[in-house]
Amino acid sequence: MKPLKIAVLQIAPVGTCKGNLQKGLEACQTAKEQGADIALFPEMWSCGYHIFDRPVEEWTCEAIDTNDEFIEAFALLAKQLNMAIGITFLEQWPTGPKNSLILFDRHGQNRLHYSKVHTCDFDIESALTPGDGFSTVTLDTAAGPVKIGAMICYDREFPESARILMLQGAEIILVPNACPMEINRLSQLRARAFENMVGIVTCNYPASVPDCNGHSTAFDGIAYLPDSPVSRDTCILDAGEQEGISTAVFDLDALRTYRETEVHGNAFRHPKKYHLLVSTEIHPPFIRKKYRG
């Protein structure tokens, strides 16, 4: 199988949905020129995640429907470029907007519609409606079929997010992001890739965007090679701080072979002993205060 190439569009928003649309379309064109099979945007690209230091009523009015021309433009471009596109947006919803991603395949078809499950309810995101769950799809790419899942930013801090996607068969997890990617957050992504034997690709905003610092990354999830007595660094991409488009290359044949022979992921689990993980009759959370807006 050909290597799978995923472009992270580490680009800065321009202040309007219309402007972000045009810049996003141009970025996808560049990604295709670099040979990408999938292009991934940072979190909530339609509004540039511009929700802090603004009245909730102001930014929630910027939510768009899935039939909006912003979304349809990326569906059309995906088909024209023969490249999958993971576009992110503030989605219009009756109970409050959702933080969403739609993954269009290279034929322009909506293959995955995911909304952030773990919204940051300790902060301004308490005005958002959380997603209902996680799902994985088989994506037809020019490199062949690959099983794709998604989680968004704060989702990565919950091991259950990536674990559920792995159990659904995900080989690659796409992670739109909007926050500083420092050592601990990067370590979370590295751990999610290692413990589930999955590839994880994160797209963040560059350092020119407030409260962001770039460092979009990709971890291929392969910690051991047959001909090496020591473990290897699973990081195959760190885009640095500057604005730009970088491409991560995944060897899916190697990943699939690795998953057939290694002991992580779903190999030796004891799910019957994990009932506490899904029980509501547990100790209250350590944090007792909730954001009030």
Briefly characterize the structure.
This protein is of the alpha/beta class.
State the main characteristics.
23% helix, 293 residues, alpha/beta, Nitrilase/N-carbamoyl-D-aminoacid amidohydrolase, six-stranded mixed β-sheet
Structure characterization notes:
This protein has 293 residues and is α/β, with parallel strands linked by helices. It has one domain: Nitrilase/N-carbamoyl-D-aminoacid amidohydrolase (4-Layer Sandwich). Helix content is 23%, strand content 23%. It has six helices and twelve strands. A six-stranded mixed sheet has the order 5-4-3-2-1-12, with helices on one face. Helix 5 (183-196) links the parallel strand 8 (172-176) and strand 9. Helix 1 packs parallel to helix 3 (69-81). The mean pLDDT is 95.
Q: Measured on Cα atoms, how large is the radius of gyration? A: 19 Å
Alpha-beta classification: alpha/beta
Instruction: Please provide the ordered H/E string of secondary-structure elements.
Output: EHEHHEEEEEHEHEEEEH
Tally of helical segments: 6
Q: Low-confidence segments, ≥5 residues, pLDDT <50?
A: none
CATH fourth-tier homologous superfamily:
Carbon-nitrogen hydrolase
Write down the overall mean pLDDT: 95
- What is the percent of helical residues? 10-25%
How can the largest sheet be summarized? 6 strands, mixed
Q: CATH architecture, please?
A: 4-Layer Sandwich
Q: Biggest sheet: strands side by side, in what order?
A: 5-4-3-2-1-12
CATH class: Alpha Beta
- Large-scale geometry: globular
Write down the domain tally: 1
